[in-house]
């Protein structure tokens, strides 16, 4: 038996001397390499599915062995009341009545599977739990993994985010999730996670409450030295999404509050902003040449300083109100974006909302955040062209930069960058014209309107503009990309319009569609007239 490329024998023998393992791939064209990579990804999904199933079945065998060994030693029944009281006292004293039987079936399966797959115990336990969920809680969704419609990472997203759904509701959630996966093209993890959350919000709202309560309890923060980077430490933690969004927005606001000539990167400024918050400050010092402090003159070493001279310059009273306009005295205002239905804001329903970069949040959290927020109300576009609807809208469509409300409408209709697989939050990316804007003659095409705009992060915006990629956008706002190899991908299989029906737009009027609509109206009117004539000519009783 040999592998596809004939490189290594399954028993572990080394390749034949002088054989190049990668030579069969080196001679393939770019188109064939992409096809090979996609085929390999599909086979990997199928194989990881089988591996998880094998881990779960191994656990079944070892648990049965453990139960059999326990029953052979002791049936578990007390022969008398005194024996029952003695066993109860041992349990209350903290002694495990089953410790004499050694590791249980789950522990044995963990060790055996981890050794076979060269995994840590945590990874082996996770694989066993994944296989169990695939067999009993999400069998239909597991089938989509076996068919390579999703990969293992996306199945585990579905598994974790449905963990608080009760057993009675789980079949409904599983069926809805499998149907949504099979009905759509492959999508990025951000879109997939939002789709799973929407299904859980729809079919199991109580699970969302339990998950939020668990998230509030399961918070924590650790700071420890980095094992791989001497002189550095790592910060890791878990906090609820709302608090994380507030902290992230605060760090970004502080990092962007310095001058553009500051030589630090955005990541460095955010790290410095976190340290500034730890020292009780609300702003970040700018390190550009204009703001850098001048080096202090050297003082004689023998000079004695009084305690009152330890500070530099006058110290202002904290209660005094500062009237200057420097950024040091004005804490940057954090900003994050939420998309919600107006009916949910007013309390008429409890539909979930979208917190940009974090996914869905429940209605109560949204209303609390909206209490002090700036609101922008957007509506979906109509069926007609701007020039026919409004002169101001037509003039706006001839400008390169979209207006604020149009930007909000386009971003609210998406969840992230529309390039296949990208997860960049939608409010941090560019808006790209699908049909290029003609700066010399704006009226000739490439209008600045919803049906010609899509969110793209800066990296993919440059790839699309200067690379050999081709993009398209139909009248239903579906965005397609054609790679240089000829492969075609759908960039937005699941969008904000799937969450908020009010954002869905109807396609513009077309003479062909109008003709069919007129014919349908004429047929309906004719049938109605004939029915009215029959009713008049045949009054009751019949």
From TrEMBL:
Domain DUF222 per the UniProt entry, residue ranges: 94-412
Pfam families listed in its UniProt record: DUF222
Region entry Disordered, spans: 504-542
Biased composition, class Basic and acidic residues, residue ranges: 510-536
InterPro entries associated with the record: DUF222, HNH_nuc
Superkingdom: Bacteria
Protein name (Swiss-Prot/TrEMBL): DUF222 domain-containing protein
